[in-house]
Amino acid sequence: MADQLVVEHLTKIYERGDILALDDISFSVVKGEFLVVIGLSGSGKSTLLRCINRLIEPTQGKVYFDGVDVTAASGGELRRLRRKMGMIYQQFNLVKRSSVLTNVLAGRLGYVNPWMSAVHRFPREDIEMGLKNLERVGISDQAYTRADNLSGGQQQRVGIARALMQEPELLMADEPVSALDPATSHSVMKYLEQMNQEDGVTVITSLHFLSLARRYGTRILALKDGKIVFEGLPSEIDEARFKEIYGEEAEHVEVR
Amino acid sequence: MKDRYYAGFMTQRPAFFTEFSKGLSRIRRRFLVVLTDLFALMYLWTLASYCVNDFFYHVRNFTSLPWWVMLIVAVEVAAFWEAFGVSIGMRLLGLRLRPIEEHRLGQHVVRYILWHISPLFLFRLLWKSDAVPWHESVSGLKTVRASEIAMTPRPWYTRSWSVAAVLIMLLSLGAAMLITKVDFYALSTGAPKMMPLWRGLVSPNWALLGEGVRLLIVTVFMALMATIFAVIIAVPLSFFAARNLMHGVVGQAVYIIVRTIADIMRSLNVIIWAIVFIVWVRAGAFSGMLALFVQATANLIKLYSERLESIDPGPPEAIRATGGNRLQVVIFGVIPQIVNPYLSFTLYQWDINVRMSTIIGLVGGGGIGQLLFQYMRIWDYRSAGMMLLLITIIVWAIDYMSSRLRARLN
Amino acid sequence: MSKSVEEMQALRFRVFAFFLDWASWGYIAYGIMYLLNSYWYTNIHYYGRLSVPTWGWPIVILGTLELAAISHAFGHSIGLSMFGLRLVTDSFTPPSLGKRWQRYLAWHVAVLSFPVAIWFSTQKSRLLHDRLTGTRMVLVKQYKDEIPILPPRAWYKTNRGEMSVVLIGVTLWVGALVTQIDLHTMISRVSTSSYLWKELLSPHFTHFITPDPALQQSIVSGMIETIFMALLATAVGAAFALPLSFLGARNIMGFSPLGWVVFTVVRGVFNVVRSIQPLLWGTVFAVWVGFGMFAGVMALGFHTVAALGKLYSEQVEGIDPGPLEAIAATGARRWQVVLYGVVPQVIPSFLAFTLYRWDINVRMATVIALVGGGGLGRIMFYYQSRVGLLPDAWNQVGAVIMTIIVVVWVLDYISGRVREKII
After folding, report:
1. Residue B388 confidence (pLDDT) above 60
2. Any chain B CB within 8 A of the CB of A99?
3. Where are the alpha helices (DSSP H) in chain A?
4. Does any domain span residue A92?
5. Which CATH architecture has domain B199-409?
6. Domains of chain B: which residue ranges?
7. Is any Cβ of chain B less than 8 angstroms from the Cβ of A77?
8. Considering the domain boundaries, does residue C190 fall inside one?
9. Residue C258: which domain range?
10. What is the tens place of the pLDDT at every residue in A38-49?
């Protein structure tokens, strides 16, 4: 199968403070994979994901999505590429004062007629699609409440529904569960797994805990100080590898 | 019964009392809805007739009909509005018509008619809080709290309350334009008159620089002295104006008195205070300083006491737990929390005082404003321009300084 | 940060600290000279004369320079503590008194050769007098580990404490003279001016509803005018401030050169316009559109644009950037990001600020009549100008003042409640 996403020699240097966040990263992702990126805080996981859809401009290197060079895309082309890549976030990144449905419909902004969106009008079928997606993540009854009235797990599910609205081919999740408690974490991860298996959406997610990565990932990429230190199957991570990724003092923490 | 009493004091309210107060709040809410609707409708009516009168007949008259006609019409329209949909009062006070499967026109009409007599029996709600007003039980259209139901939002322009709100806003602006005699013609034709003024501002009279700077120093010192004296008065008073520190009947009374006096002092502009003080101590920088001082004191009391009301109750509690007395609680638990905000507010107030002190000269309060207005009055725009330039520089500089220092303090 | 950048920062701070100390001593000297002037040489002019005899200038400049050098060498001056500098020996201990004397003397040599030394020196942060005496002036934050922590001295034993006391003392004394504080007049005139309070506190509401024939206006109609003036000014100001505030927000304009220019210009204009009081703008607009309420509205509105614009911009800068990122990632356009990500976040605080501004504008509208006519202010100043002609002029002024208090209080209360609700 052809590679859906190819990352070549990706490097990111933050000018403020001369920090090398990503150091010559190369990997590729096959369609339908569930790739988990692990590593300590500050190892460059978030930067990597944001460089793929260019929320952060990479300093050097190329990103190809379906054979199209994302790093060279400009304006409209970049927007069309972005709408194929859904993203969900650690802090959910919902507009807290807007209703749940408005938040979900924001996922369609890349598709709809811009003039209609200027007066907050969305096509009928988009609204129906939004309600359907909310139903899918189990919060259809909350469609008209304000987003900040929801619990953390519910907010993250709104985030998933928003990403679903994009009808994505690739879903990126930036530590989707690190702001949630263990039980809610699993329910959110299950939705990602469901999308991966039922809809065939490629998923790239960064995670803090190795146990979650082992449970859900089909492949694992480990970052340390902006470099790839491990790439392979979840089962290949043994004690020595673990120490290498997380440092000598690390202990296993299980999330059940 | 036993656990309702603790050491001889009743800790729970008796059942009839809670029932009574619940009923009272329901009645009050319903009356407030009607009052709000009446107010909105009469306001709308008045403004509309003012605009029509002024625009078509060039008469400045708020209403052309007797007031009782207006009242009756407003009452009827309010009843109609409340019976058929969500009125502006219902919206503001969080009440909705309970949505039912199928609306029949008859229900609304019954509700509208019975609305007129139902208030006579409303007092029933006082002792039976689950009772439903007559016009609602008969018509089957009940009002509920907005939080109890979830409704699909409709676009705002299909909602009567939001249309009314927009109408009120538009009419207010229209009336405001008529009342204040907005004159776009003067705006366009008057522009050439500005030329000498711009010329004066661009080429200020540099010969007045020395005199201007001298007055500027007076201005800044007026603001400074007013702030210092205000701090001396406001710091102790702010403790009396903080609700969380004032307990008991005496405390509450002191709180109310201090707050009210501060509010009255604050609500009058510095210029008005200057007029008063000029009679007292004669025109000059002293009267201007006193006027600034009064305003600054009132402002600082408000700012300080609001900060006191939002302190973290943890540290005072900890001091109390170690056996500290009231004074120690304040010194070790409260004051460390408020020093920086107080300094920051003081700087901010100094900033405001400098701005205000530039205009206080208009009525004889001294400072650079006095000279500026003199020159404006005799159309000496070059000299006025010099003063304006100096004012802008000093106000901007002190604003910048105080905001930088405040950023550091926070 | 590299070593050279750190050294340059330390050097820059040293220069700033020195000038701050020099300025403080200059201020004290100037203040003392003002006091000497006012008590011995001349009478205080009406506005307060601030002059120095001609022979004074060189002495003042040289003297303050020496004083600044002394306070730098012998203690912890205001400048040093403001910029976090400390004088230490090479082994980071406090220098002895002898060392300090040497340093003070060597400073005179160094200051003359400063330009040459700074040009040729390889160790730019160690000036000549540093090297001569084996001491150094360091930024405490850069040498946190080396500098021993000493118990703090009582404030009155430190150089900066004593100097602050002198500064405050001189300021208060000079301030009292400049602002002509005169408690004697104040007390002696209590009896002659007490009629004012009596009359203000017994207001005559004769023209509350029935218009005064001379003015052709009643207090109620003045009240309506004032409120609507403020309303119109606020609405117009907010309408202009709204789009401008996005141009004046750092995070919206980004870091491109064009964005930076627009940001700087918009913010600069806001600051200048804001720093001139509405009353002053009133005089300007009275020239433009003629004396009247319209000029007052224009003045208030113009000032409101700047004041609200600044507050709005700061709100826009303070928003949560997360949702913006999320909406940009869905492939939305830049303005869609603003509309769907920024606007919902700022609307409540925008509304709150606008209401608050309306409040302020009502207060301001009561006096804008001085230059713009109309409203309660016009009535008040009319009666005030008739003091002595009308027997109950102050009572009428009192009635207007009472009305202002009530109107402002009611609006303050309403807007406060509404603001509480929407935030």
Report:
1. yes
2. yes
3. 45-52, 75-83, 100-105, 114-118, 124-136, 152-165, 182-194, 210-216, 239-246
4. no
5. Orthogonal Bundle (1.10)
6. 2-175, 199-409
7. no
8. no
9. 219-422
10. 888 888 888 899
